[in-house]
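Request from the bench team (R.T.):
"We need a structural guess for the complex before ordering more NAP. Sequence and SMILES attached. Just send the tokens back."

Command: build protein-NAP structure.
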Amino acid sequence: MKLRGRTAVVTGGTRGLGRDVASALAGAGATVVVAAREVPDDPGEGIVALKADVTAPDSVAALMDTVHEQYGGPHIVVANAGVSRPGPVAALSVEHWSEVVDTNLHGVFNTVRAALPYVRETQGGRVITMSSLLGSRATPGAVAYCASKAAVEAFTSVAALELAADGLTVNCVAPGYIDSGMGRALIGNEALWPKFAETLAAGRPGTGDEVAQAVLFLASPESSYVNGQILHVDGGVR
Ligand SMILES: NC(=O)c1ccc[n+]([C@@H]2O[C@H](COP(=O)([O-])OP(=O)(O)OC[C@H]3O[C@@H](n4cnc5c(N)ncnc54)[C@H](OP(=O)(O)O)[C@@H]3O)[C@@H](O)[C@H]2O)c1
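Reply to R.T.: structure attached below.
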């Protein structure tokens, strides 16, 4: 119950990895609000779901205002919402490029920027962004996703330095191939998966909870002197 009395916002926390993260934070005693464009009737035990679109600055600002008024904080913000649109440079549509960059990069900026006035007011605020193994691993056919996640890592590094004096930390989790959310589709792709599977030093993909536990650490008091880090949760990838 180390997060009792803390309010956490998890964007994209309605399914996949975000839902795993929300469950772990709620299990540690936090009041958790998940936000997405579509919200489920049952977001999980101890979890509240609110509609928000991270690509729209006003939408995320309204979300943070509502969270502050109704639940306090937020003390913890997990900028997790993300999309993937495969395609090589030569064939990727402008629409798909824009959707990925708008969601994965602008969405992180919009979320963190909207949360900051409130997170700064709290003691020991936490900002956690979500990158990917692909943020540092050139992967043909995933140019928009790779570029957006590399930018999220740079954003995290700069924000951590800018905000440390305010007593908050900004860190990033970079999951590898995970059997949850969008990773599950890749694992289920019989044509593609064997090529990726042979790179896994651990010999298996990760679980959503293994990623969630890393986020939980970065959200917890125990990580108070960890700042600006990219925490790879991938079991080791060759
Ligand atoms: N699963 C993996 O193997 C893996 C590996 C590395 C990194 N990641 C990263 O982990 C994060 C979560 O991925 P996932 O696998 O859980 O994906 P997912 O199952 O597809 O879930 C994505 C979540 O983001 C939300 N979302 C998408 N666009 C949004 C928007 N404009 N505004 C608000 N919410 C939005 C979705 O809800 P709505 O569509 O209803 O809005 C959903 O809740 C992403 O940043 C992804 O890049 C995942």
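Two things stood out. The longest helix spans residues 94-119. The first strand starts at residue 7 and ends at 11.
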